[in-house]
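Work Package 3 (structural annotation) set out to generate three-dimensional models for the target panel prioritized at the project kickoff. During this period the team completed the workflow that converts sequence records into discrete structure tokens, so that structures can be stored uniformly alongside our sequence database. As a representative example, we reproduce one entry of 391 residues exactly as it appears in the project archive.
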Amino acid sequence: MNGSLTVVGGTYLEICTDPYWFELYGSGLRGAASISNFVSDIKLYSVIGEDMAKDATAICKSFNIIPDFTQIKDTVSFSYHHPLSTPISSYSDSSESLHLTDVSSDNVLYYGMIEADVSVKGDYVIYDPQNWAPFGDTKSIANHLALVLNKNEALMISGGEEGSNLLEIGRQLQETQRAEVVVIKNGAHGALVFDSANIYEIPIFKTASVWPIGSGDIFSAVFACKWAVERVGAYEAAYTASTYTAQYCESRVLPLGEPEKRLAISKKQKRRIYLAGPFFNMAQRWLIDEVRRCLLEFGNDVFSPYHDVGFGETKSVAARDLEGLRKSDVILAILDGLDAGTLFEIGYARALDKRVIILSESVHKDDLLMMIGSDCEITTDFSTAIYQTSW
């Protein structure tokens, strides 16, 4: 353990209904905590509400982080129905925005904040915008700048549209943002790394379960540790970051330890997902809608009997459903109440030797005997089902 890193970023209360989560983290605190086993001197510049200032200070002490908190009345919170839902923030456009004192340090990991802006100056700076603000708009200065951002942020900052060539977007960001390195994270499809000479593909790593809240924070923190503190190359830093991100997504444990060896999942072409599940009442239709939305956001082509066939004469509907199933690559089945139609679709798909992922939140294991015995992949977790289907 050696070196120093200054982390600038939010400290937020995170609330998730299913699965239950009620923790004080946010990008800044989580990022600093995650690498506290690897970096000896970590400073955190953040904002915290008076209501949770003591808690935040105690958390920092437990991870040997030196905090510099600017206090506001109430801690900003983000609430999720599930980890892939759009979060609802307690911060609104009418809330007071702060300007923090400028931060200067050799190595800086800078996460964008919803409630504050700050200018940083550093030799090595890693900027994870968390929003649509270009690095130049923050009036920050870096001798060596790495942008680590997700696909949507890359498109917004570059002015690109959905479907734009990410290879072109990455090179454009290098030029317009004067970045030495650009890393574009693309969800279940891994990441792209752009340095001065090359473009690299970074895989993701298979896990038994996936907790996505904060996964991007972990990636940026480990990348900063490797690239800025240890001064390794951008490809190695990003590859290592992906391995540690997988560890966090499966365990949620901080600080990070040495990751297990996992199967790397290479980037694949868009494939067709058949979305099976009952849609007889509002709750079932909401779930089908939500699963479909997430699958589409992950870049999948989705065939949903509810959306693409709908209701009608029995034989006609069944024929079109089964045709859609035959033309699909993977089946995601929502098993709610052992619906007969969904069970038939699962069996039909396995008879065609198609891969089947089952989201089963409340079905007893004894009722899943045939699905388990026919090698269906079964999970009780919404986010895990979406990721496994997209891999």
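The two ends are 34 Å apart (CA to CA).
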